[in-house]
Amino acid sequence: MASIFTKIIRGEIPSYKIAEDDRFFAFLDINPVSKGHTLVIPKQETDYLFDLNPALLGDLMQFAQKIARALKQTVACKRVGVVVMGLEVPHAHIHLIPMNSEADIDFRKPKPTLTPEEFTALANEIKAGIK
Ligand code: AMP
């Protein structure tokens, strides 16, 4: 069965899309740890990130770099943190999380809530900043 992220790529499940090309897709995490929390995924459905072909993994990081740069311009933050967990969704993904302190990257803390309109505006703003 297709993963939830494959369904997002196919447009079968809605998402707040930021960018895509023929191999990669980036969208806002629906349950963000901090505002702007973004997921970057390969379209190829592989459960574990480090099972990806090395060249694809490298290119995924380069794609993530473009998103992270746009994200940092959009959301005031010191850095964009990178987290890889993959315990919930068995489709390789990188979390990009705007952060000003270590606490901003704590998945156990109360999460910010955004309206659909705020998610849409944020995704569009990040998208517009991609170079
Ligand atoms: P993990 O697999 O532990 O790295 O976490 C999966 C992440 O995917 C979590 O941060 C979820 O909030 C996020 N997530 C799950 N379903 C969706 C969805 N439909 N749209 C956006 N993000 C999602």
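^ adenosine monophosphate complex. The CA atoms of residues 49 and 92 lie 5 Å apart. The first strand starts at residue 17 and ends at 20.
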